[in-house]
Amino acid sequence: MTSSEIPTCSAKGCRDAAVWVLAWNNPKLHAPERRKTWLACEEHREHLSQFLGVRGFLKDVVKLEEWVQPEGSER
Fold first, then answer.
1. How far is it, in rounded angstroms, from Cα 63 to Cα 17?
2. What does pTM read for this prediction?
3. Helix, strand, or coil here: 49?
4. How many helices (H) and strands (E) does the chain have?
5. Contact criterion met (CB below 8 Å) for 23 and 2
6. What is the distance between the alpha carbons of residues 39 and 45, in angstroms, rounded to a whole number?
7. How would you list the strands of the sheet with 36-40, edge to edge?
8. Could you give the angle at the alpha carbon of 55 between the alpha carbons of 51 and 32, nearest 5°?
């Protein structure tokens, strides 16, 4: 795997390797089963989780190596 293939954190300006998958859904825009994803490094996991959580969007936080992308999900 080259450095361009290593998943990186979704936080603005961060290029660190992703460790976490934050699965989310905007209920005003998406069907209930649909999951979009953000990736997070250790440093930004809490911040990104809080951002999604206060909006009621956050559905799950899973270690990247354990993540199985559901049908219809996207990053």
1. 12
2. 0.84
3. helix
4. 1, 3
5. no
6. 8
7. 36-40, 20-24, 58-63
8. 115
Copy the structure tokens of residue 21: 């998958």
Query: Please, what is the Cα angle at 55 between 59 and 73, to 5 degrees?
Result: 40
Is the Cβ–Cβ distance between 40 and 9 less than 8 Å?
A: yes
Tokens of 55: 């909006």
Q: Which tokens hold the place of 56? A: 């009621």
Tokens (6 digits) for 5: 């293939």
> What are the tens digits of pLDDT across the range 9-49?
999 999 999 999 999 999 999 898 899 999 999 999 999 99
| Residue listed under structure tokens 């999604």 | 52
Q: Which residue has the tokens 């069907």?
A: 31
Residue 59's nearest CA partner among 24, 20, 21 is: 24
